[in-house]
Write a structure and sequence with these properties.
single chain; 328 residues; alpha/beta; six-stranded mixed beta sheet; 47% helix; globular
Length: 328
C-alpha cells in the first residue's frame, strides 16, 4: 500500500507543471516606453531567452520606469539585486564611469554606420566598467539621431536663448548652456511632468516610438540637428548570471547577440517610421536647420570632446584614435 502511495505521488509530480519545469525569473526594466528602442530591446531579449531556454529562464519586463528606477540609478539597482537586469541610457551613467558618455559626445557620429563602429570599439571598455561593478554587459541598444523638440520653430542662434531644454547628460547640458539655453539634465521619465508644469519648453531627444507621442502634444516642432546617435546599455547582475546552469548562460549570451543584431536592423528604418508618425500627428520637422543655429551648438563640441578625453584617460586615444567618421 505504501508503495502505491509513493507511485501515485510520483505521478502527480510528473504531471504538475511547476515540478516538471523549474523556472528562474529575472526582472528587467527601462525608463522608456515599450515601443521605444530601449523597450523594444527588453521585449526582444525576453522573447529570445524564452525561446532558447524553453521558458526555464523568464525575463519579466517593465517599462516607463514602472519600478521607479531611472537610467542614472540602474546600475545601483542591479548591483543591489532589486532587479536582475535593465537597460539604461548610457549618457546618464557618466557618474559611474566616463566611458558611458562616449556614445553621446556631440556631433561625433552622424550616421548609423558610424554609430555602430563606435559602439563596437567602445564595447570592451563598457563591459569592463560594468564588470568592475559586478555586472555583465548583455547588449547595446542604438537610438535614432537626437534633435530638438520645441514649442516654436528655431531659426537663428538667438532662438536657443529662449529654450528651457531637457538634456540627457552633463555634456549636452554644457553644450546647450554655452549656446545660451537654460539646460537641465533629467531622465526621460521625468520629462513629461516638467513639460506639464512648464518648467521646460524644449527637449533634446529622438522622440523614438511612444516617446514622441508624449512630446508632440506639447512640442510641435522638431529640428533635426543630429546632435548624436546615442546608445543605451543593457546589463545583468553578474552573480545572477553566474548562478545559472551552463546551458542557460549560453542561452543568455546567444539571446544578447541576437537582440543587438535585431536592434541595429530595426534602426535602419526607424527614423523614417518616426518621421512619418510625427508628420501624421502634426509635427513640423526641419530636416535642414539653419547652419548658424547648428554652428552655435557645434562650437562647444571640440572642447567637450577634449574634456571627455581628459576624464577617460587611455580609453580616449584607443577608441577615438581607431575611429574615423565616414570610414567603411
Amino acid at each position: 500500500m505504501r508503495l502505491l502511495h509513493m507511485l501515485a505521488g510520483a505521478l502527480l509530480l510528473l504531471h504538475h507543471p511547476i515540478a516538471a519545469r523549474a523556472q528562474t525569473v529575472w526582472d528587467m526594466t527601462t525608463e522608456y516606453p515599450q515601443s521605444a528602442m530601449s523597450g523594444l530591446g527588453v521585449t526582444t531579449f525576453a522573447q529570445h531567452v524564452a525561446a532558447l531556454t524553453a521558458d526555464k529562464l523568464v525575463i519579466r519586463p517593465s517599462f516607463d520606469a514602472a519600478k521607479g528606477i531611472r537610467s542614472a540609478d540602474m546600475l545601483t539597482a542591479i548591483a543591489q539585486g532589486r532587479i536582475q537586469a535593465g537597460d539604461a541610457f548610457a549618457g546618464s551613467l557618466e557618474a559611474e564611469d566616463a566611458i558611458f558618455a562616449l556614445p553621446s559626445l556631440p556631433f561625433l557620429v552622424t550616421s548609423t554606420a558610424d554609430a555602430r563602429r563606435l559602439a563596437d570599439l567602445a564595447r570592451p571598455y563598457l563591459a569592463a566598467a560594468l564588470q568592475s561593478r559586478g555586472e555583465r554587459l548583455l547588449y547595446l541598444t542604438p537610438w535614432p539621431p537626437s534633435g530638438i523638440w520645441s514649442k516654436a520653430p528655431l531659426k537663428t542662434p538667438a532662438d536657443l536663448s529662449g529654450l528651457s531644454i531637457r538634456t540627457y547628460d552633463r555634456i549636452s547640458s554644457e553644450i546647450f548652456a554655452r549656446a545660451g539655453a537654460k539646460a537641465t539634465s533629467i531622465g526621460f521619465a521625468e520629462t513629461l511632468p516638467r513639460l506639464v508644469d512648464g518648467s521646460i519648453n524644449a527637449v533634446l531627444s529622438s522622440g523614438d516610438g511612444d516617446s514622441g507621442r508624449k512630446l508632440w502634444a506639447f512640442l510641435p516642432y522638431f529640428s533635426e540637428i543630429t546632435y548624436s546617435l546615442p546608445i543605451s546599455v543593457a546589463s545583468a547582475n553578474q552573480a545572477a548570471y553566474d548562478g545559472l546552469p551552463p546551458d542557460l548562460r549560453e542561452a543568455v549570451d546567444t539571446a544578447s547577440r541576437r537582440t543587438e543584431t535585431d536592434l541595429w536592423l530595426a534602426l535602419s528604418t526607424r527614423l523614417q517610421e518616426n518621421h512619418r508618425r510625427m508628420r501624421e500627428s502634426g509635427v513640423t520637422i526641419d530636416p535642414d536647420p539653419a547652419p548658424a543655429l547648428v554652428a552655435a551648438l557645434q562650437s562647444g563640441a571640440a572642447a567637450a570632446r577634449q574634456a571627455w578625453c581628459e576624464r577617460s584617460g587611455p580609453a580616449c586615444q584607443k577608441i577615438l584614435g581607431a575611429f574615423a567618421p565616414g570610414k567603411p
